Amino acid sequence: MTIKDAGSLTPFDSGVEYSAPARGPWNIVHVGTLVPESHQVFVCAQSCLRGVVLTAAEMNAMDRFSTIAIQERNILKGDMEKLIINGVTDILNKLPKLPRAVEVFSSCIHDFIGCDMEFVFGKLRREFPNVDFTDCYMTPILRKTKFTPDAKMRQQLYSLLKPVPLEEKMVNVVGNLEPFYEKCEILSMLEQGGWQLRDINYCGDYDEYQKMAASSVNIVTQSGTLSAGEALEQRLKQKLLYLPVSYRYEEIDGELKLAAEAMGLSLPDLQELKDRTDQALAHAAKVLAGMPVAIDFNATTRPLGLARLLISHGIRVITVYADSFGKEEEPDFYWLKEHAPELKISATVHGKMVVLPRNEAEQYGGRLLAIGQKAAYFTGTRHFLNMLENSGLHGYEGIIRLARWMEEEAVREQDVPSIIQVKGWGCCG
Predict the structure, then answer these.
(1) What three-state secondary structure class fits 253?
(2) How far is it, in rounded angstroms, from Cα 95 to Cα 338?
């Protein structure tokens, strides 16, 4: 539909879903491997295990991954707790070296039958006092709830941090799958202010990971990971600073001022940054020369915000691929309804997407730039910016880098199928 016809931020019906073969976004297995020196144990029915086993195999992480298959008799006999305790014990005793931490993934069935996971973890912690255990979840019944499995996994990623005295001028970035782009102004502000940055992406071992517990501030950049920051604020008393990725200048200014005030930092020259950003976007518009652009929600947490930014700077955005939009995008939603009413919005999981022609790029002689894997797949283009979950971009410098990426990919053709079939793009295990 066109955005002028969209009645709300959730314009598409929910029902039978289609899963496009754009497999770059991370799943819970990929996210769990970010804890260094950890081992994952999935306790599920065999049919459920198939996907996570393939994920671990594809990323060459089978040495950090084990499974316990649930049989029908375990449900009928009521010995689920015993199955998990004995299974995890057997797995750990057979490993060449005990891991520093173990992430035990329960599934829907454990909720359905009332499995006593508190008892399970208590027994395991007594049996292996030198191993840190945490509860993780593979529960697709939560997919349509406010607290999705991905949000829960991002929270549990930091659940192993142990309380220690907090250190001044130590700050964590929480919830991101990639570190900040090195030129982001928040990084330069922190460096100039004498702050030391910690990020799970930089942790080489478990001891280094544990040092994140000493940070006095946590920075969160997307709404889906707010629960992780909130949990740490409550449990470790670390201050939460929410600085979401945004493409609206006034919001970026507000976030930088908030960070400066909260952490005693000096602000950069905001007007100079705006001028450079405008120049970068103007140059990108000139290079694209009317080339149509499609954006998807896997590329950025603010697809409508990005569409608004590009359109307002003379770049021709024709489609946004997303099944729904967050509340934070409401101002952009209504701005686009007024200023770009013919902008198309398209679902990605709706059942009818399986039969939608995937050749839109042919209408433009193949010259269509996709920002994101799903946009590339559905349009059939070979001009493709492989951006996932903001790719570490933030603030004005992030927009400037994005503009340059768009210029590069507008003139380069890629073998899109070979790229988007790689599961968990960028995760090395």
Answers:
(1) helix
(2) 61
N- to C-terminal Cα separation, the chain: 39
Domain's final residue, options 156, 183, 208: 156
Residues 9-55 pLDDT 10s? 999 998 899 999 999 999 999 999 999 999 999 999 888 888 899 89
Residue range(s) defining the domain that contains residue 193:
167-263
Q: Which among 89, 121, 156 is the end of a domain? A: 156
Query: What is the DSSP secondary-structure string of 176-202?
Result: -SSPPPTT-HHHHHHHHTTPEEEEGGG
* Encoded tokens for 270: 């905001």
Q: Round to whole Å and give the CA distance between 360 and 368.
A: 8
Read off the pLDDT of residues 33-44 as tens digits, 9 standing for 90 and up.
999 999 999 999
Helices marked H in 80-148: 80-94, 108-112, 117-127
Report how far residue 242's alpha carbon sits from residue 227's, in angstroms, rounded to the nearest whole number.
11
DSSP H helix total and E strand total for the chain: 17, 13
Going by DSSP bridges, is the β-strand pair 369-371/344-346 parallel, antiparallel, or unpaired?
A: unpaired
Q: Write out the two tokens for 200.
A: 């799970």
Specify the number of domains making up the chain: 3
Q: Could you tell me whether strands 383-385 and 196-199 are parallel, antiparallel, or unpaired per DSSP bridges?
A: unpaired
pTM of the model: 0.94
Residues 274 and 393 in one domain: yes
Asked if the structure places residue 429 within a domain, the reply is no
Q: Is residue 115 part of a domain?
A: yes
Which token pair is 105?
A: 């993934």
Residues 6+ apart with CB under 8 A from 401: 181, 183, 393
